[in-house]
Amino acid sequence: MFLTVLQIENCQNAESLIAELQVLIRDRSDVTLNSIVIHSEEEGRRLGFHGSPTILIDGKDPFPAPEIPVGLSCRRYPGGRDEPETVRGFPSELQLRQVLTGDN
Questions:
Q1: Which residue has the higher pLDDT, 82 or 20?
Q2: CA distance 104 to 99
Q3: Predicted TM-score of the model (pTM)
Q4: Phi and psi angles of residue 85, each rounded to the nearest 5 degrees, phi first
Q5: What is the pLDDT of residues 63-87, one digit of tens each?
Q6: What residues pair up with 88 in beta bridges, in sequence order?
Q7: How far is residue 6's CA from residue 53's CA, in Å, rounded to a whole number?
Q8: Which of 1, 5, 10, 72 is surrounded by the most beta carbons within 10 Å?
Q9: What fold characterizes domain 2-75?
């Protein structure tokens, strides 16, 4: 499994997301994590970037948000079953666990 975090430069939410992912995958030799800083809207369109941070699993966004335009901006994630009324700067630990295990 290949995880990619797409982000704008100096995004605190991306840094927090990467730290959370590192904890969740530390014992998983089948997972590779990298990050890409997006510098232009053209680059963002090409990579499927809908705000920072955007996580891709094997090139696909597990939290699709086609209504969010491509742009060099922050992204917000609605809470999942664990926090239905919360809006966060990156997915919750439970949401990340679910997409990493395919249990969503």
A1: 20
A2: 6
A3: 0.89
A4: -105, 10
A5: 988 788 888 999 999 876 667 678 8
A6: 77
A7: 6
A8: 5
A9: Glutaredoxin (3.40.30)
**CB distance 38 to 44 below 8 Å:** yes
Label the pairing between strands 77-78 and 87-88. antiparallel
| Residue 104 three-state SS | coil
Say how many CA atoms lie within 13 Å of 97 toward its Cβ.
7
Ordered by start, the domain boundaries in the chain are: 2-75
- Token pair 């699993």 is found at 57
Structure token digits, residue 94: 């439970």
User: Amino acid letter at 40?
Assistant: S
- Is there a cis peptide before residue 53, judged by omega within 30 degrees of 0? yes
- Nearest Cα neighbor of 77 from 50, 40, 104 is 50
- Could you tell me which of 72, 53, 44 has the C-alpha nearest to residue 3? 53
Q: Distance from first CA to last CA of the chain, Å, rounded?
A: 16
The 10 Å Cβ neighbour count of residue 5 is: 22
Spell out the residues 6+ positions from residue 80 whose beta carbon is closer than 8 angstroms to its own: 91, 92, 94, 95, 98
